[in-house]
Amino acid sequence: MPMIHPLFILLVFLSSSVKTECSLSDADKITQLPGQPQVGFQQFSGYVTVDNNKKERALFYYFVEAEIDPASKPLVLWLNGGPGCSSLGVGAFSENGPFRPNGDILVKNDYSWNSEANVLYLETPAGVGFSYSTDSSTTTMNDEITARDNLVFLKRWFLKFPQYRQRELFITGESYAGHYIPQLAHLMIQSNKKQKIFNLKGIALGNPVLEYATDFNSRAEFFWSHGLISDSTYNIFTSVCNYSRYVSEYYRDSVSSLCSRVMGEVTKETSRFVDKYDVTLDVCISSVFAQSKVISPQQVSRRIDVCLEDETVNYLNRKDVQKALHARLVGVRKWDVCSSILDYEVLNIEIPTISLVGSLVEEGIPVLVYSGDQDSVIPLTGSRTLVCGLAKRLGLNTTVPYRVWFQGQQVGGWTQVYGNILSFATIRGASHEVPFSQPERSLVLFKAFLKGRPLPEMFS
């Protein structure tokens, strides 16, 4: 038998090692999405398994590198809420991603957040969008499981993309991500104390659920101040049965006759023909804006089928699109914006996360809470109250007094900063989904957040 030279063995080993490392992300690289315009940045999508051995639970991601010089740009993780709604369909294809579906094609979003960062969209928890679990015992999900799965996802995603492991990392999202993000960030900090993996530089929470009683009960004042309900209905909505009590009873299947009567009046006066997620917007809104399933239990069924066509749903259910995305349907017949199979412990909503936000600030992690000011689902007044209260508890002094900020030559909203680490901002004219309704203003906000700078206080 001819003798094999040791150098040959070494070369074979090295080449196979390099091939294996490269192929981890190369296998997920998107050649081109159907109908996509030509772009100069790379896209990736695929699965990361998050259970230990059986590979029965996998989360789907979509990753777009920055348009220019991605090696110098930070990594941003985006999470949508629900719980049970898709960061792919809502965040990527309707809010701040590089493309938006328009019939059979994709059109470029001029205000995409990947102009400033490498953006990673995660469909979480398992059972949402293309993410799946084949183990029937894990169909019931909760905040704790979701946070743990998201942590495992990120650790394993870095194995696919090792060049991003030490990159500055920011986590952003909206709605029920007010639970997902602080819980994930808390686990990341704990994990870092054992082994430094995450270079977490900040979190941004859009119209978030942080303390459900404060958040929900600010709805009555918002309705009344915007002329959506009468004085008498405002009085009973704040004394007889407030919204947090109604939601609590609703999810315990024990709605009292008092709450039923109050909510009947509120629903009648606010009208189902007004979009509660943007009270100034006309009602023909795509089903992608039904992500507040838990926080508006009485309104979801009315919102999902408002319009006859949903560009995003149609696009992501095309077989050629699913093939290009390396996606597959597991346990469902079609891709949905919000999961119809996810069984989530909805009473997790009653567990406040504002204290977790405080612990992140104490760890030196900058936090931005921002509010679209036309959203009545999680109104700005509740979020502002919570941020102000947190600043007082942490002993943070105001470092940027409450003032307007500008986008171009228009007022973009209002802002206040505490201790140069905890910030609150409103986005003028924006809905629950800020990047959808005010894309240019949301991009100004995003740039300032990444750079750690106050929002512009002068015309530009």
UniProtKB/TrEMBL annotation:
GO CC terms in record: extracellular region; vacuole
Subcellular location as annotated: Secreted
Keyword flag Glycoprotein: yes
Organism for this UniProt entry: Daucus carota subsp. sativus
Highest taxon of the lineage: Eukaryota
Lineage start: Eukaryota, Viridiplantae, Streptophyta, Embryophyta, Tracheophyta
GO molecular function: serine-type carboxypeptidase activity
Family membership: Belongs to the peptidase S10 family.
UniProt cross-references to SUPFAM superfamilies, sorted A to Z: alpha/beta-Hydrolases
Protein name, as recorded: Carboxypeptidase
Principal EC category: hydrolase
Keywords associated with the record: Carboxypeptidase, Disulfide bond, Glycoprotein, Hydrolase, Protease, Secreted, Signal
First-listed, main subcellular location of the protein, grouped into a coarse class: secreted
PROSITE patterns with a match to the protein in the record: CARBOXYPEPT_SER_HIS (PS00560), CARBOXYPEPT_SER_SER (PS00131)
Role: Probable carboxypeptidase.
Signal peptide: 1-22
EC number assigned by the record: 3.4.16.-
One Gene Ontology term from the biological process aspect of the record: proteolysis
